[in-house]
Amino acid sequence: MKKKILSLLLVSALTVPTISHAAETSFVQQHSKNSTTSVEQKQITTSQASTQFSAPKASQQVKNGWNYYDGYWFYVKNGQLQHGWLYDAGKWYYLHESSGAMYSDGWYLINGQAYYFDSNGFMKVGWVHDGTGWAYTDANGVAQNGWIYDAGKWYYVAPGGYMYANTPALVDGSYYYFGHNGAVMTGWVYTSNSWAYFKANGAQHVGWLYDAGKWYYFYHGYTMVTNGWATIDGVSYYFDANGVYQYSR
Length: 249
Description:
By secondary structure, the chain is mainly beta.
């Protein structure tokens, strides 16, 4: 099947303010391979594009139910070739509008929505790994993007793309860090030889933080200030190597 591929490149640029302090460590620069990157897009075949194959001819012997012809599966009911959505044995399938060939092994655009069908033609729901990355579909099989809440954890799927994992990302004006399994992380997070702190909702903490009897300071888009002086609201503060505030002048 010759697929017409919709390849869209979404570039997510995480813009970080320039702040001149010897004591700061850039959270985003520490993760530069992820902070300004191309978000890979799902390859989606349009439902109208698959026209290179033909349906069984009248001269071909077909039976009710599934038929295999010319490398593709077709479904016949009451002697008639079926098209569109098909529910069979507890699974949803989709049969090409013109030829009736079953969709399989990829993403397909149907009525403006993206669906994933596995190698058996089953429409998938929930988390889907297509060989490139993880995506998410709702109970109706429609691909979702944005924030996903699943099994008590939050995830983020880039529009038209895949779940973030092992990376910081700027979402709705706040930085978040997504762990190796894609779940948003909270509390103290140590990455690339630096510490950052993320609130209960996953957003990176900005400004002063009081934790376990000690004060720390974080810039927007940056890890905590460490090992030197930093001027904050016109006052100079000194932070030790662990980021703990020591004294001011």
